[in-house]
């Protein structure tokens, strides 16, 4: 399952420039057979995506967090997505897509 998620997320990251017109900058920091770590930035948010094998943490394979640049350093994240047991690659992409949409909008995050 990890390889399917990694492939889907890599493909989705390649589509970001065309879809958001450069509104989201992505810097891939680690890209291996078992791990993908990406730093993101938009005009208002810093983000981080990590895709890696299951471990002791609050998610299974995927984590996506956004911090608002306009808030102080003690803030809670503006957006958090963690996948869960049973989520498919499509579920992971849907969670990431909610975060990407948040990065280019000024609307308040709602669960």
In short:
The chain is an alpha+beta fold. It has helices at 2-20, 89-103; strands at 25-31, 36-41, 45-51, 62-68, 79-82.
Molecular structure report:
The protein is α+β, with helices and mostly antiparallel strands. It has one domain (2-103). It has two helices and five strands, in the order H-E-E-E-E-E-H. The protein has a five-stranded antiparallel sheet, with helices on one face. The longest helix has 19 residues, at 2-20. The radius of gyration is 13 Å and the shape is globular. The two termini are 26 Å apart.
Runs in which pLDDT lies below 50 for 5 or more consecutive residues are none
Find the count of extended strands (DSSP E, 2+ residues).
Answer: 5
Q: How do the SSEs run, as a string of H and E?
A: HEEEEEH
Largest sheet: 5 strands, antiparallel
Question: What is the share of helical residues?
Answer: 25-40%
Number of helices: 2
Can you give the mean pLDDT?
A: 90
- The coarse overall form would be globular
Tally of individual domains: 1
* Strand residues, percent: 25-35%
Structural class: alpha+beta
Radius of gyration in whole Å, from Cα? Answer: 13 Å
Main-sheet strand order equals 1-2-3-4-5
> In whole angstroms, how far apart are the ends?
26 Å
Topology diagram in text:
Elements lengths: L1 H19 L4 E7 L4 E6 L3 E7 L10 E7 L10 E4 L6 H15 L8
Name the descriptors.
single chain; 111 residues; alpha+beta; 5-stranded antiparallel β-sheet; 2 helices; 5 strands; 31% helix
